[in-house]
Every structure is written in C-alpha cells, then in structure tokens.
Design brief:
The protein is an alpha/beta fold. It is built from 13 helices and 13 strands. The strands form 4 sheets. It has a 7-stranded parallel beta sheet, sandwiched between helices. It has a two-stranded parallel ribbon with strand order 6-13. Strands 8-10 form a two-stranded parallel ribbon. Helix 2 packs across helix 8, helix 5 runs parallel beside helix 6 and helix 9 runs parallel beside helix 13. InterPro entries: DUF1731, Epimerase_deHydtase, NAD(P)-bd_dom_sf, SDR39U1.
C-alpha cells in the first residue's frame, strides 16, 4: 500500500492529457489503493508513482489548474465539493472520464484511501466586503478546514492520507510599506491576519503522523480569475497607471508556479510546515502596473484613484491598496524553481492569451 506514496519526479508540463486509469469503487474507497498499483488500464512507467489526491476548492481558479496538472500526470483525483452540478460543469465527464466528484456526505469515504488531501476551499476575497461577506470569508475557510481535518483524523491508520496541503494567505503578516516578511515573521493585527491565524489553527489540529504543508499564498496572477482579472478592466477604463499610491508592495505568484509548488508539496517529503507561495521578486504596485500597462499597450501614467477601486471591491480593495513584501525563503531553501520569478515575464505570459476587448470583461 505504501508504494503509492513514492516521491514523484519533477515536471513542468501543463499539457492537458485528460486520461486517468478507470477504477471501481466497492464499499468505499479502500479498493483504490490496490488498483492504484495494479490497474488493468494503459499506463506510462511504474504505477508506484501514482497518487490518489482529494481536493477541496477544486472548481476554483487555482483548483482547476491543479486538477488538470494531476490528471495530466496520470494521478487519480477526487474533487470534494458542495455542488456536484457546479463541479460537473467545470469537469465534464467527456473530458475527465476518471474524475470522482463527491458532495459533502461523501467526503469521508474519499479522504479515506487517499494518499494526499489539498485544501483550497474558501470564498474569494477579491470581492466587495460587507459585514456578512467578511463573516462568510472567514467561516468558509474555517469550516472547510475543520471538516477536512476531522475526516482525516477519524480515518483508520491504514487508510489515512499521509499529507495535507492546506492553503492560507500572506495576509497572515498584516501590511507594511517598510517591513520584509518571511515564514518566521509574526502575524499582523488586522482582519485578514485574524482570518489566517484561525484558518491555520484548524489545519494544525491534523493528526501528528500526517505531513502538513501550509502555503501562505500571495496575489495569484492568471487570466481566469483573482485580482488581475479585476484590475485589467480598470486599466482599460483609465488607460493604465498605479492603483492608489503605488508605493505599496505587491507580493504575487503566477498561477502555474503556485500549482507547481502545491504539486511538489504533495510528493516531496522535505516540504512541511509554512511555505510562502510568492514569487522571489515582489514589486511596488506602481512597477507592477507599469509592466501591466506595457504588455497591454496602454499608457501607465494616469493613476487609478482609490475611490474607483473601492467602487469595484469595497473594503476588499485592501488586498490591492495595502500590501506587504513577502519573500519565499523556505521555497528557495528547498530548491524550488520558479518559472516566473519576475512580474514582467509573468504578465507577458498571461496577457499573450487574453483578448483585450470590453466584451472580454
């Protein structure tokens, strides 16, 4: 059974190969461990490298990319969701024939027998905040993490996952224009720092025999979601330029690098504890906006005023108008290789696939 936990070789491939071995579920999920090693389906290489991974938040911006990455490398994926209909629309069976979609009542059976669990669940924060939304942002993370941890802890030793990778955020550190934060820095004292402390606190209750990785994620850059998708139409309206003062630090990561970091955390036993999910070169927001204007072919001299961003995001504008300089010290110590260490290259890659027209947004 332990052969399914073997360390994976590193790959940077993101080619969508929508095929995984077909398994039969009999009285729960235990049968998957045997079939993981002895599938009758076509395979490439040794089956000992295959993992069974259960994922919460699999239909989200990052989760979708992670699911595709795991499936492209022939791993078995179980998407743990609150809405089967939504998950089926994101992952149609014709393209994902071996993917298992499980609603909350089925999470326990899927977690039992998985080699690893990735917890990405949580309401997006790049939205307008109200007291009700703030409560939901917090509770969506705490409840999902608590449920996942409880189900892992309730599993028998022989079917308990060996690793939990749980998302958290650089909001843990609070905001500053002068300080530099790494994984050893203390927590801040604002709303997002409070959310992150409680979020991480629930994950830390996982069984001591389970390797826990807490990834404190920065602003994720990609064309399909996150803060960048909110910023691009503002640039189009105002012809580009800094958001707010422009002096605030912008700790970012390309979505492909984040997916690679999660992937490596699943398979590499050296990855444990807190790891900052940020690129090694954070920038002032003015510099980031200058590069964005350049790759969009927009001038970057006219600032986007605070009130315009707040009109779109309300109090949630704090994730752009405030900031912190966060360095991925632990990832660099582990030898993690960033495909996009510089924001200009990341933006070029992203914007090369985006059609810049008002209807796009």
């Amino acid at each position: 059974m332990e052969l399914c936990r073997a360390t994976l070789s590193w790959t940077n491939s993101f080619a969508p190969v929508f095929h995984i071995p077909q398994y039969t579920q009999v009285n729960g999920c235990k049968k998957f461990r045997f079939l993981c090693m002895n599938s009758d389906n076509e395979s490439t290489g040794s089956q000992s490298n295959q993992m069974i991974v259960s994922i919460t938040g699999g239909t989200g911006f990052v989760g979708r990319r992670l699911v595709q990455r795991l499936i492209s490398d022939k791993h078995s994926v179980r998407v743990l969701t609150r809405s089967r209909a939504k998950a089926q629309s994101v992952f149609p069976v014709r393209n994902f024939p071996g993917l298992i979609i499980a609603e909350e009542s089925e999470w326990g059976k899927c977690i039992q027998g998985s080699d690893a669990v990735v917890n990405l669940a949580g309401m997006p924060i790049s939205t307008r905040w109200s007291p009700e939304i703030k409560r939901e942002i917090k509770q969506s993370r705490i409840k999902a993490t608590s449920k996942v941890v409880d189900l892992i802890n309730q599993s028998e030793d022989d079917v308990r996952p060996s690793v939990l990778v749980s998302a958290t955020a650089v909001g843990y550190y609070g905001t500053s224009e002068t300080q530099v934060f790494d994984e050893t820095s203390p927590s801040g004292n604002d709303y997002l720092a409070e959310v992150c402390r409680e979020w991480e606190g629930r994950a830390l209750k996982v069984n001591k025999d389970v390797r826990l990785v807490l990834i404190r994620i920065g602003v994720v850059l990609g064309k399909d979601g996150g803060a960048l998708a909110k910023m691009i139409p503002l640039f189009m309206m105002f012809a580009g330029g800094p958001l707010g003062s422009g002096k605030q630090w912008f700790s970012w990561i390309h979505v492909d690098d984040l997916v690679n970091l999660i992937y490596e955390s699943l398979s590499n036993p050296s990855y444990r504890g807190v790891i900052n999910g940020t690129a090694p070169n954070p920038v002032r927001l003015a510099e980031m906006c200058e590069h964005l204007g350049e790759v969009m072919g927009r001038p970057s001299w006219l600032p986007v005023p605070d009130f315009a961003l707040k009109a779109v995001l309300g109090e949630g504008a704090t994730i752009v108008l405030d900031g912190q300089r966060v360095l991925p010290k632990r990832a660099k110590e582990l030898g993690f290789s960033f495909r996009y260490p510089y924001v200009k290259d990341a933006l070029k890659s992203i914007m090369s696939t985006v059609k810049l027209s008002p209807s796009r947004f």
